[in-house]
Specification:
Layout (H helix, E strand, L loop, with lengths): L3 H4 L6 E7 L3 H17 L2 E7 L37 E5 L4 H10 L5 E5 L11 E5 L9 E4 L8 H9 L2 H4 L6 E6 L6 E2 L2 H17 L3 E6 L5 H11 L4 E3 L8 H7 L2 E5 L3 H8 L5 E4 L2 E2 L5 H11 L3 E3 L14 H15 L1
Parallel strand pairs: 1-2, 1-3, 3-4, 4-5, 5-6, 7-9, 7-11, 9-10, 11-12, 12-14
Antiparallel strand pairs: 8-13
Helix pairs in contact: 2-11, 4-8, 6-7, 9-10
Length: 336
């Protein structure tokens, strides 16, 4: 009988299957890692989005089977006559029952990667790519600063092209402001949003700069309105959620990036640009825990500092954690 290394012996292009519940922030973690692998070796990537039927969604992962998936889900198992993928990259709680069974179902052919902290059956995956701030440990765990993402120099340049006419003429320094919203750990009240906006406005005006502001889907409407009212008079662009998303363009054209402390993804993506990352405080709903650890990690790397009301510039080596994770995935696949 062939050993695992022999069963996994493949010739490029690799077949990679990305699996998530379809939420963009979740999908981008797995897809970003897949794309980083593709930059290292020829690969074909397919994206699969799944969801569980409402009746079964709250069941423990160990009780879920594929027939419980909602009919709107993409197929995750190969059709008759098709092969399992060489590499399965999944993220999020919804994918765990599927990921945990892939090694056995594929006869050992498929290398299984789970991003984030599964908190369930950690030995079922070939590799867990987990944020260092989650403190996951084990021989098959790779800890990285933040989460895998899709931000690359090429993607930023591509995204910037559509907005060059609006953003390139803006006065420098250009300040990108990435605003999150309410979560289990933080809140963004109207009053706090107004206070942040006033501090941001003062900082931008002090240096004669311009503003590029975007909100997340979690930003409360009252907070949006408060910040828009106070910052709308500055030169720049406030994205209202209509039309193409300027997120990549903002990162490309920014000289400074301000990020609310509730988003590990936005902080890691901003730190991959090599531009100063200023962390904006929010209203804590519980101890900061993993977010405090992430921001401490970013500070140690020279990438981020708490926003102090000024726009002091500094330099550091851009984070390349997604590429590092991709190289480790390929290394472990070759080792079998």
């Amino acid at each position: 009988m062939l050993d695992r290394a022999a069963r996994r012996a493949v010739s490029p292009p690799l077949s990679i299957q990305v699996v998530s519940d379809g939420r963009i922030g979740m999908e981008n973690q797995a897809l970003g890692l897949a794309e980083a692998v593709q930059r290292l070796t020829p690969a074909d990537i397919s994206v699969r989005r799944i969801r569980w039927r409402t009746l079964f969604d709250k069941l423990p992962s160990g009780l879920k089977t594929s027939w419980m998936l909602d009919l709107s889900s993409d197929p995750t198992e190969p059709a008759a006559g098709e092969d399992w993928p060489d590499l399965w990259i999944a993220t999020g709680r919804a994918t765990l029952p599927l990921s945990a069974r892939v090694r056995a179902a594929s006869g050992g052919k498929t290398f299984v990667v789970q991003t984030q902290d599964p908190r369930w059956r950690n030995a079922a995956y070939d590799l867990i790519v987990a944020p260092a701030h989650d403190r996951v440990e084990g021989p098959d765990v790779l800890s990285i600063t933040g989460s895998p993402h899709r931000v690359t120099a090429g993607r930023l340049a591509e995204g910037a092209a559509a907005f060059a006419g609006a953003l390139e003429p803006l006065s420098r320094p250009r300040v990108a402001v990435l605003v999150g919203g309410r979560s289990r750990a933080f809140d963004l009240t109207e009053a706090h949003a107004a206070e942040l906006a006033d501090r941001i406005a003062a900082a931008v005006e002090a240096v004669g700069g311009s503003l590029m502001l975007t909100f997340s889907r979690r930003t409360p409407e009252a907070a949006k309105a408060a910040m828009t009212a106070r910052l709308g008079g500055l030169p720049g662009l406030i994205w209202d959620g209509q039309g193409p998303n300027p997120y990549f363009a903002f990162l490309k054209f920014a000289d400074h990036v301000l990020v609310t402390e509730d988003s590990a993804n936005m902080a890691a993506e901003a730190a991959s640009t090599g531009k100063p990352v200023h962390v904006l405080p929010m209203i804590p709903l519980k101890p900061a825990g993993k977010f405090a650890r992430l921001h401490a990690d970013l500070r140690q790397r020279g990438a981020a500092r708490p926003f102090d009301g000024t726009l002091t510039a500094w330099t550091y080596a851009p984070l390349v954690e997604t590429d590092r994770a991709a190289a480790e995935v390929l290394n472990r696949m070759m080792r079998g």
